Known about the structure:
The protein has 147 residues and is α+β, with helices and mostly antiparallel strands.
Amino acid sequence: MDVRVQEEAFDLGVETSAFAARQTGMGAVVTFTGIVRDIEAGLDVMQIEHYPGMTEKALAKIASEAKERWSLGDVLVIHRHGALKADDLIMMVATAAPHRVDAFEAAEFLMDYLKSRAPFWKKEVTGAGQDWVAAKDEDEDALSRWE
């Protein structure tokens, strides 16, 4: 299990290849990568804040929960913080499992958690000002299916 919270960019190809190469006896690897979306007002920067130590601990806990709920061989979670621009990679989840259903469901579980519960605070900065990103009902609804 590898959980990273980092400011620097990551290379999706390198991370995916390295994760897949570490797997033995697995029948499936699933990856998902989140990308910073532009907004109608024109995003100058998405400022992502977190509490070091607390965030990593929370992400490790949810990754461990995924390994308990599904038959997984390995989990990778990378989430960036700092100032990101539209089209920057913001996060990545990878799961490996003997069977694809476990890999897909665990990846969805982790993505839903990262979207609605992970301790990150996001501020959109545009030429017109800045606003904190509020939680969305659909993200909460997505997370409720795992209860």
